[in-house]
Amino acid sequence: MRQKLYSAPVGFLAFAVASAACVDAVPLEDYPDPIEVRDVDPQGALAPEVIGRVDRSVPGQWRMSWPGVRIIARFRGTTVDADFDEIGLPDGVNLDPFEAILPSDSPEEETRKKTRNAPDIFSQFDVIIDGKPSNVLKLRGVPNGPREPALTSLSTQARLADGLDPNAEHSIELVRRSESSVGITTFKGFTFSGGINPGYLPSFRAHKHRLLFAGDSITAGYGNEGDGFLCKFTPETSNARLSWASVAGRYLGAQAMLVAWSGKGMAINFRNDGGLTLPGLFDASVALDVPTGTPACDPTAKPGDLRPCFDPKSYDPEVIVVNLGTNDSNESYCPDGSQNCQEAERLQHGRNPDSASTNACSTAFAACVDAACGVDSATNVSCVAPVGCVDEATRCLAARPPAEQGLYVDKYAAFVKKLRKDYGPSPLIVGVLGPMLSNFPSGDGPLGLKTTMANYIRLAIATSGETNVDYLQLDTHFFIESSGCDYHPSAITDRVMAKRLDAHIRRRIPTW
Asked: CATH homologous superfamily of domain 3-33+208-508?
């Protein structure tokens, strides 16, 4: 069993732990947001083209909750309207997974709910006319509890454009800015009017390449349009169209399917929120925040049912990108002392002695590979982890106490195996260490949190037994100039990250 470990060169956003001084932001012109130019397909359908993970079980309707879904059409006409149904999932209390909350049945939480006003706006879409952003569509929904069995939808007809040139051909694109925690949208088609022979024109040619992303808030675009690290989440500050995943798709001329949800982890969510992790939600065509133990989707769902499963055979990505672990490594929030709380505490990567043996296995594995490939083997694209290193790491993991088995490394390896089973041997899988982790001296163990998580991901990749799986490390980005809300990447940082992934994929797949 031989496993390649890859990483792009370090350098775009060098980070000095010893200095708290501000560093100049990366010049925007160095990493422009690419403008997509697409050819018309003369045989293209006279209908919208929908890119991303959606439920298509009802003809003429597309139901969606995952971020970054794109709805594109060419047409003649002076006016564009569209029909929607919106389910507002939040109960108007806590749209932000990073806000401290109390147990839902506590008197304190009930008091907090009463003092907060339910938001009027749920799912939001960028409206792009003839290739230029025009406005933001803000859909209202009926505020529902996020885990209520019965959800109520609100129908809306929206005017998206007016006063267009009656003699020209036009294009319209809607891009879902919002993520699954905000609401579920059903798009029921465009209506074109005005001018001569208004209606659909043949669509654009389909993208040749396809990407699939599994991630958390970083991939969803959480807070990337915020005004700095002190701002808090709102639907207005988050834009999946500008996330690193969507921008990478434009750099690479590829469809990008985003399966991402803020606060979700590989093994444990942020503050151990009691919901499914991202791998637990991954099979859903339309994601709902359901409790652990509840299936994310129903494989027997009939057309129009709320929880259809996604058929992986319907999408054949050339590259699958996994960026999960930032939330696993955060401090747990478990006031009730539950088993989930205790499991979360065991995952605190050097903060808790119970994680010592997993750290020992991962550190020994990294040292073994370094000895064979040279120091900093993770950035050596020609490095192949020796069979002996992998075998010893496998034995080390098997010898861990039961309390540590089944946590991050094991869950990560299992997810890699699932992706390979679902999508076959061809796609390149890239395990990414995200940009929000650092080695700040803050009680994260002798190696620091970033190094420990890097070792964990490399160990999970190697011991998964799967080949054609890479490791890619993104630089820590903690600059005031490049931070979005809650220290998340800004749209500028998203472009830098996208360019790094673009370079890595083109190097690995020269025929791209």
From this structure: SGNH hydrolase (3.40.50.1110)
